[in-house]
Amino acid sequence: MTELKAKPEAKRSLPTIVWPLLALAVMLVIDGIINPSFFSIRLVEGRLYGSLIDILYRGTPIALIAMGMAIVIGSRGIDLSVGSVVAISGAVMAHYIHADWNPWLIVLVTLGMGAFCGLWNGALVSLLGIQPIIATLILMVAGRGFALMINGPGIPTFRSEFFESLSTGQFLTIPTRLYLVVLVFVILWALLRKTAFGLFVEAVGSNASASRLAGVGTRVITIAAYAIIGVCSATAGIIITGDVRASDAVTSGLYTELDAILAVVLGGASLNGGRIYLANTLVGVLIIQSLTTSILMSGLPPEYNLVVKAIVILVVLLVQAPKLRSSIAVLFGSRGGKVKS
Amino acid sequence: MTQEIEPRVTMRGICKAFPGVKALEDVEFTLHPGEVHALLGENGAGKSTLVKVMTGVYQCDAGTVTLDGKEVHISSPAAAQDLGINTVYQEVNLVPTLSVAENLMIERQSSVFGFISWKKTRERARASLARLGLDIDVGRSLGSYSLAVQQLVAIARALDRETKVLVLDEPTASLDAHEVETLFGVLRDIKARGISIVFITHFIDQVYAISDRITVLRNGRFVGTGPVAEVPRMRLVTMMLGRQVEGHTGDRPSPDTIKMEGEALVSAKALGKSRYLKSVDFDLRAGEVVGLAGLLGSGRTETAKLIFGAERADLGEIRIDGQPVSLRTPKQAINLGFGFCPEDRKHDGLILDLTVRENIVLALQSKQGIFRRVGEAEQNRLADEMIKALGIATPDAEKRVGQLSGGNQQKVILARWLVAKPRLLILDEPTRGIDIGAHAEIVALIRKLCAEGLALLVASSELEEIVAFSHRVLVMRDREKVKEIVGQDITQAAIVEAIANS
Amino acid sequence: MRERRLPILATIVVFLLLYAIGGFYFNNFLTTRVFGNLLTDNAFVIIAAIGMTFVILSGGIDLSVGSMIAFVGIVMAVLVRDGWHPLTAALVLIVFGFLLGALMGYIIDAFEIQPFIVTLTSMFMLRGLSAVISQDSVPINHPFAEAFGSFRIPFPIGKGWLSAEALVMIACLIVALIIAHRTRFGANVYAIGGDAQSALLLGVPVRKTVVGVYALNGVFAVVAGIVYALYTSSGYPLAAVGVELDAIAAVVIGGTLLTGGVGLVIGTVFGGLIQGLIQTLIIFDGTLDSWWIRIVIGGLLFVFIVLQKGIMRSVTALGSQGAA
User: Could you tell me if residue A253 is left (phi over 0), alpha (psi between -120 and 50 degrees) or otherwise beta?
Assistant: First the structure.
C-alpha cells in the first residue's frame, strides 16, 4: 500500500558492520600516521611480532567476554559479574593445577564453574524476575570473595606448560589464543545462526511476551544466554590467569565488564536488546584495543586511555540515543525513519 | 437535545491520526455543565484518544475545542488542568510506593519555615478525602489499598483543584458492586456541584444507573449522542457493535457445510478461571468458524487466551480430539496444532525488531525446537510465499516488521501461524485498526482457511464481521457464555438481543 | 502493617545481631572506642552512600563515586601542595561535583540514556584524569589537615571519641534527612523513583529533580572524597577502587529498593555500619580471612533484594488482584 511510496528512495540499508569497521579504519590510519612502522609485521624466532598482532593478542580476553555479552545484551540483559567470574575461574584453575589434575580436566571444571555462575545469574533474572543489573551485581560483589576463598592466603602462582602454551604460546607462528577466539566465535556463530537459538534470543530481547505467545521458551533462553557468557568469561579467565601464571583474585578481570559492554555498544547493538552482532562486537573490541595502542604510541601517558575511552563511549551513546537522532532529524527537516501511511 | 444552556465543552470535527491508524475521524462531542456523560465504544473506537485530546495528552490534527464558549488550545496535561479539566485514568496515575497523603499533596505540601510539615499535610489530605466520605490512614502507601480506594484518592486529588470537567476513564473496571455504589454516590455529589463528568465505561448497566447522556464512538467515528432515556439498550448495543444497515450478511456459509456430527477438535465444558472467566462451553470441529461476540470485558478475549494456554484455566475441562488436556503454556497449545493472533498486536504479537521473515518463521521454529532450524532457503521460500499469498505490502522479507502498516502487520502474524500449519486458529479482533481494504481481505482469508478445513475461533467486536463468517456464535456477557446461536439464526439482531437482555 | 518499613527493621535487626555476636565473642567489642572507630573508618563510604541513596531512590544508579573520591583526593593533595588552603580546595571541588553531577543528570534525562552507562563514562573519565594529574600518592601536609586528623570529642563514657570524620558524616546525615523528608525536592525524588510517568502527570518537575539528584550526589561524593583524603592524609589515583559497589551495597542493605521509590536515608547509615561491623568482626577474630567480607555482603545483598521483591509483590498485589 502506502509503504512502498513512503520509504524515500528505499535506501538499501548498509550492513551494520560498516560503521564499526569505518571507525576501526580511521583509528588504524591515525596509528599509521603517528607511527609509520605500525603496520609492519616481523617474524622473529618463529613468532609474529608487530603492533597489529599486539592489538589482536591483547584484545583476546575482552573479545571472548564481549561475544558472550553481545548475546546477553541481545536478550535485553546485562552481566556485570564477568570480571568476578574471570577471578573465580582463575582461582579454580590454579587450585587444580596445584592438585596436579589433568589439564584437560581442569579446563572442563573451570568452564563448568563459569557455566554455574551464569546459571545462577540467569536463574535470578529469569526465575525470580530481578533486573539484570541488580541480579548480576550480587555475584559481582561476592564473586571476588569466593575467588579469594579458593585461592587461600596470598596469590597462588604456578607453572603449567599446558596453560602457558594455551595463553602465551604460538602455533604456526600465530599466537594460540587467537585460534581460541576464532574457535569460540565459530561455535557461538553456529549456535546462533545454525540453530534457532539466535532467533529465539533476539525474539525474547525484543518482545518477551509476544515470544512466549509464539511458543518460545523464554525462561530457558534467558538462562542459556547467561550460562554462555559464564563459559566465555571462564575461557577468558583461563587466558588471563595462564598469562600471568598466577591467580590474582583482586585485580584479575577488573573492569572487563565495562570494556565488554563498550565493545558491544561500539558494534552497534542497542542496550535495549533485540539484536546480536557477533562480528561487529569483535570489531568493537579491536577499536578499543587499537585506541589503547594509539594512546601508548602517541606518547601520551597510558593514563589518558581511560579518559579517551570515556569520551568515545559518550559520543557513541549520544549518537545512538533516539532522542538526539530525532531532534537532529527535525533540525534538518529529514523525514526520519518512521513510515506513515 | 434541546438544552438552551451553553455547553461546557464542545468538540467539533476532531481528527487524529497515528502512523498506520486513523484514530479519530470527524468526531464531535458536547458536554453540558453538571451532567454525567457516558462515552461508549469498543477497544479502538477512539474514546481514549478523544479524551486525551480533551486533556491535552494529544494534539488533534483538525477540529476545534471550546470551553465555556471560548475556543481553547489545550497543549499539555498541565494546560488542561489549568483550564479545570482533570482526569482519573483506569490505571490510576498515582505513585503506588508513596503514601496516600504524599500522593494527594505532592508539589503542594504544607510547610513551616520552608520545610514540609507532614503533620499539617496529612491533616489536609484527610480533610480532602473526608469530603468524599473516605476515612483511611493517609500515612500508608497507596499501593497497599484497593483500587477502589486508589480511584477515590485520584478523584479527591482532581477535585482539590478548581475543576470544571472530571474525566473518569473506566473507573469501575475493577471495582465490585459495593465499591461501584460508593463511587456513584460520590459522582452524584460532584455532579450536584455543577461539575461535568465524562464517564468512560463498557458496562451497560452502569451507563443507565448514573449517566444523563450518552455518546457512542465506533472505529474512530462518531456514531450518535443523546439523552439516556432516549437510547434503549438494544439501540445502544447496535450503535456500539453493528452497522446501522441491518440484514446485509453477504454470502453466508451454507448450512450443509457445517459439520454437526463427528468428534470435536476442541470441546470446552464449563471452562473458566477464577476472577478471570466464569464459564464457557462449546464444541469446535474442523472446517468450522465459531464466533465470540459480546461487549468489551464480556469474556471474548479471556476465552481465546484460555484455549491457547496463554492463561491457565482452573475450572471445567477442555478436551482435544476427545482427550482431556490441561493447557499450561502456549508452547503446549502450539504443539497440539493451535495458533493465536492476539488482540494487542504490538505488545503480544509482533517482534518489532525482527524482520518480516523472522516473524513469519518464529512459531514454526518453536514448534520444531531449537536444534531443527528451518533452513535459510526454506525460510525465504515460506516468507515469499506468504507475502504473495496474503498480499503483504513490503519491499522484501528482510524489512523490519515495525515499519509495516497495521493491516500488513496483522497479515504477518497470520502468516506466522499459517506456516506452522495449525489445525485450530484463534483470532482475537483480527481486523482491529485495519483500513477497509485490508479488512475485506482478512475476512475473505478467514472464509478461505475455513473452507480448507481449518477450525477457527474468532473473537470480534464487529457484529457484521461475525455474522459474515461464523457457523456458530457464542454470545458472551459478564465473563460467561449466555447464548449460542447456530447457522441461519445468526443475525446481528439476534446477537444484539442476547447481549442487551439482562 | 506498613510493609515499606519491613526492610529497615530487618536492617536494624542485622545490625544489632552483628553487635551482639561481637559482644558475645570478644571482650573489648562493646566499647565506645570500637564504636568511635567504626564511625571514623566508615565515614567516607557512608557519606558517599547517603548521596547514592538519593540516586537509587530516584530509580538511577551512579558508578562514578569511587573514581570521584580518588579524583578529589588527588586534586586536593596537589592544590594543597601548591599552597592552597584545604578548605578553599574543598569548596572548589564541591562546586565541581555539583556541576558534573548536574551534567550527568541532564544527559540521563534529556537523552534517555541509562544512568549506569552515563555514570560509567564519568567513572572512566575521573579515574583517568586522576592518573593524569599524578601517578603516585601525593601526601597532604597542612596544619588544617593535621588539626582535622587529631580532632576528637571524647564520649561521656569509655575511652572512645568522636572524630572529625564522624562529625562530618553526622552533619551530612542531618542535611540529607532534611532534604529527603522535609523538602519538596525530597518528596519528588521518592515520586519519580516510584513511577516517573505518574509523577510527571502529577506535576512533578522530573527533569529538574533528576538533575538535582545527580548534582546532590556529586556534592556528597566530593565530601566523601575530602573526608577520605584527610583521613588518609594523601591523594592517590588508585584510591577507593570499588567504593561505588560498597556504597550501593550499603544503600540496599539499608533497605532501599534498588528499583527506586522506597527507602530511608537513615537505613543507608545502618547499611554502611553493617559492612563496617563485618570488617571489624573479622579483624577482631584474626583467624578469618578478609574474603568473608565480600561473601557476607554479597549474601546480604541477595537476601535483601529477594526480601524487597517479595514485599513489592505483596504491596502491589492488592491493587492488581482487583484488576484480574
Answer: left
Q: Does residue C187 have a pLDDT over 50? A: yes
Identify the band that residue A331 occupies on the pLDDT scale cut at 50, 70 and 90.
low
CA B386 to chain centroid: 29
Spatial distance between the Cα atoms of A109 and A131, rounded to a whole number of angstroms: 29
Chains touching C (at least 3 CB pairs under 8 A) are: A, B
How far is Cα A221 from Cα A205, in angstroms, rounded to an integer?
A: 10
Q: List strand residue ranges (DSSP E) for A81-151, in order.
A: none
Question: What is the mean predicted confidence (pLDDT) over B37-49?
Answer: 85
Alpha carbon distance, N-terminus to C-terminus of chain C: 24
Are the Cβ atoms of A142 and C294 closer than 8 angstroms?
yes
Provide the β-strand partners of residue B273: B277
Provide the pLDDT confidence category of residue A300 given band limits of 50, 70 and 90.
confident
Least reliable range by pLDDT among B214-228, B244-258, C253-267, C273-287: B244-258
Domain made up of A59-325: CATH architecture = Orthogonal Bundle (1.10)
Q: How far apart are CA C244 and CA C51, in angstroms?
A: 11
Rounded to 10 deg, the angle between the A322-331 and A304-320 helix axes is: 60
Judging contacts by C-beta atoms under 8 Å, the chain A residues touching residue C294 are 141-145, 148
Residue B438 has pLDDT above 60, yes or no: yes
Q: Do C262 and B96 touch (CB under 8 A)?
A: no
Q: Which region among B4-18, B242-256, C282-296 has the lowest average model confidence (pLDDT)?
A: B242-256
Tell me the count of A-C CB pairs closer than 8 A.
Answer: 122
Report yes or no: A89 and A238 within 8 Å, Cβ to Cβ. yes
For chain C, the average pLDDT equals 89
Cβ neighbors of C155 (< 8 A, separation 6 or more) are C32, C35, C36, C161, C162
Are the beta carbons of C193 and C261 closer than 8 angstroms?
yes
- CA A227 to chain centroid, in Å, comes to 14
CATH 1.10.3470, domain C3-313, yes or no: yes
pLDDT at B20: 63
Domains detected in chain B: 9-241 (3.40.50.300), 255-500 (3.40.50.300)
Contact in structure between B93 and C198 (CB atoms under 8 Å): yes
Domain parsing of chain A, residue ranges: 59-325
